[in-house]
Input
Amino acid sequence: MRVLLVEDDEPVAESLRRGLMRYGFEVAWVSTGSAALSHSDPYDVVLLDLGLPDTDGLDVCKALRERGDVPIIVISARSDETDRVVGLELGADDYVSKPFGVREVIARIRAVMRRIQPRTPAAAAAEAGPDRYGDRLTIDRKAARVRLDGAEVALAPKEYDLLAFLTEEPGALMSREQIMEAVWDANWFGPTKTLDVHVAALRRKLAGAITIEAVRGVGFRLEIVNAGRDAS
Output
């Protein structure tokens, strides 16, 4: 998916760009309203900061909306309700207040894209219930609930966030940096021992349904355990 990022704060823009690219997004970054309006390459969604150096982001939002129906998500330090309302009335599809994590922005992008894309009967049916992983584990992302063999498993908030992240791509190797940025904070610095603690908790609470392999010097890989397979 192609993202046009309109943000004048270089550290914020670079962190967000890097995080989005890790998830497979193509990101074009511009730092002014005029550059956003003159950007000619195609894009699927716009992430728009309101505090731009050359013009008010609300004016850019209005101009972009007059051109077409490409989804616009405002990302701004302005948390005042008036700015939110005006932005949405001018055509923004969603509004995210700073500070935010990369994973939150990705979730907003996916939610907006789901709303604008026509749903097939199969897609509607798939969204009706929780996601199933193997024979024993289900995750209800709407309710943030996890069940093992039908019984709800009590997870701490970050344990749930970690599980939800790792099960987005079972079998994929996720680096420590990628996990910390997605689950904890986009600007996380310091030791990642807390990640090991949460991985250990998930291994204990969901034993037999998943395995989480530690790849030394890199990160972790979650695998789903199906019937007839040992959870070693």
Observations:
- The chain is about 40% helix and 20% strand.
- The mean pLDDT is 84.
- The domain at 128-224 is CATH 1.10.10.10 (Arc Repressor Mutant, subunit A).
